[in-house]
Amino acid sequence: xxxxxxxxxxxxxxxxxxxxxxxxxxxxxxxxxxxxxxxxxxxxxxxxxxxxxxxxxxxxxxxxxxxxxxxxxxxxxxxxxxxxxxxxxxxxxxxxxxxxxxxxxxxxxxxxxxxxxxxxxxxxxxxxxxxxxxxxxxxxxxxxxxxxxxxxxxxxxxxxxxxxxxxxxxxxxxxxxxxxxxxxxxxxxxxxxxxxxxxxxxxxxxxxxxxxxxxxxxxxxxxxxxxxxxxxxxxxxxxxxxxxxxxxxxxxxxxxxxxxxxxxxxxxxxxxxxxxxxxxxxxxxxxxxxxxxxxxxxxxxxxxxxxxxxxxxxxxxxxxxxxxxxxxxxxxxxxxxxxxxxxxxxxxxxxxxxxxxxxxxxxxxxxxxxxxxxxxxxxxxxxxxxxxxxxxxxxxxxxxxxxxxxxxxxxxxxxxxxxxxxxxxxxxxxxxxxxxxxxxxxxxxxxxxxxxxxxxxxxxxxxxxxxxxxxxxxxxxxxxx
Length: 481
Known about the structure:
The chain has helices at 13-43, 77-95, 188-195, 200-205, 230-252, 258-290, 305-308, 327-338, 342-355, 400-417; strands spanning 2-10, 111-116, 120-126, 133-141, 146-153, 163-169, 172-180, 207-212, 218-220, 225-226, 297-301, 315-316, 322-323, 359-363, 388-390, 397-399, 453-457, 464-468. It is α+β, with helices and mostly antiparallel strands.
């Protein structure tokens, strides 16, 4: 199965400048491909020059290295090529209906550069006494564009990867990569086929229902509670106050000045702290559940978090004047939902449970907070308060979140036995890259078309580009795209 690693790295000041330069140039190539695609799609039916032409879906980038962009010659060609490959990968995901069209990448937030095998190498470090390999030195760069040894701290064992990402976010650098550890990973279908061999009573014993809420992020059907600690809550509140203070300072300073940049970095640092805490809580909660030997099936509500956190639509009175629509209250609710690790906890538990041979499914959330887990009676008045549930039919009293988790556990068992618990396999798209020669150097410009390709012009120039007729032709383009 694929295993990912993310290690802290500590580049020197000179290495930081070089890596930031590589990040900017790779982002420039990606954005240039996005703009070129938009150009062809916009004028394909309006410009006589582009009559009958379709936007080329290729990995060519040489047309962007002109006299106006001399800085592109100061970075390795593999860095630029990988920017075009990333765009091609985004297009493949779009045509496979795995995401939207490639969009412009901004120069704020997390920034990263993708390096393939010709741009780095791991040199083993052996102990002088025993000769045992104790670690690796990560060399970045090529003979023409050397960067040097990038110091990183590995907190777990790893295998050498074929490619890696070097990223920076809020002043913190990371090196991340993945590799295949050789351990077979059971599919969800195999796990489902094994689980349905049990009867309903046995399956109920090995099922854990999980209810997600705002006050209590995750509540289990066995009365487990996963929440932030008191120290974490206190520190998050302090960090939020500091963030707002520096946001006000940033708003009062001249955009682009040294003081404005300083305030922006401080705001990013406080935001990073909150994200780190939420990610840590989600990892610990999912790990505790995944390694629990009592459970083989985990059941969540099928919540549409994106719809739940959407902004309210504006309202108008009979005369067309704007009236209050509860945007302030909804904004606070949205912030609480997004800070409750709803999506992270489920995502982390899905892959951790799969490695343990366990299954995570979702059930419809309708009336789960109003249904009694003991007798099945549904009434809105049974929810006495936010945390207390009293059934009006049988008098069952329980914590509201734990009662809802028990309801979902029963729904999950019935759904699994009915044959509706198997989740659809995720679509995947491969990445193809033109390889020239044994070492796989960057593609060279072609001047003649081959069968199945059409020569198109780029931005009104004379540079030819080859477009494969197998990509998004008017006859084969999927409906609705």
